[in-house]
Specification:
- The protein is mostly helical and 139 residues long.
- The protein has two domains: 60 residues, 434 Repressor (Amino-terminal Domain), CATH 1.10.260.40; 46 residues, no CATH class.
- Helix content is 54%, strand content 3%.
- The protein contains eight helices and two strands; from the N terminus they run H-H-H-H-H-H-H-E-E-H.
- A two-stranded antiparallel sheet has the order 1-2.
């Protein structure tokens, strides 16, 4: 897979628009559109930012290999295996909701435990729709 394809795939996974990703990198959506079409390539500093935003390795981003997180220690504990088993049972939509909720929980942790950021942008606390009454989020 090439960089342009990997970028588009990652952007869609995170449900970012080209505009949103452009804002995170401090340039317009046309730059992202040009990257995704293969017309332009980002600079090395921008590649680092993009890898950081999506929390993937540069090799993965550039299509060198398919290993997103080469330095993550493989956890084979019974507790984590139970998490994997339950995660595998979820639909794509439920997995996305779970990841959003995990981001929310990590943000709530004291800064010393879970500093969460994408690139130079720190994640802001979010209000989860699941914690609201149905009439509040159908507006």
């Amino acid at each position: 897979m090439e960089f342009k394809d990997r970028l588009k795939e990652l952007r869609k996974e995170r449900r970012f628009t080209q505009v949103k990703l452009g804002e995170m990198l401090n340039y317009g959506y046309t730059a992202i559109a040009n990257y995704e079409s293969g017309r332009n390539q980002p600079s090395i500093p921008d590649l680092k930012k993009i890898a950081s935003i999506f929390n993937v390795s540069m090799d993965y981003l550039l299509g060198v290999n398919d290993i997103r997180h080469p330095y993550v220690i493989d956890d084979n504990s019974a507790e984590f295996n139970e998490f994997r088993r339950r995660y595998a049972l979820l639909s794509e939509e439920s997995r996305e909701m779970l990841l959003d909720y995990m981001d929310y929980l990590a943000i709530r942790e004291p800064r010393s435990k879970a500093p969460l950021s994408y690139g130079e942008q720190e994640l802001k606390p979010i209000t989860l729709k699941v914690a609201q009454k149905p009439e509040e989020y159908h507006k």
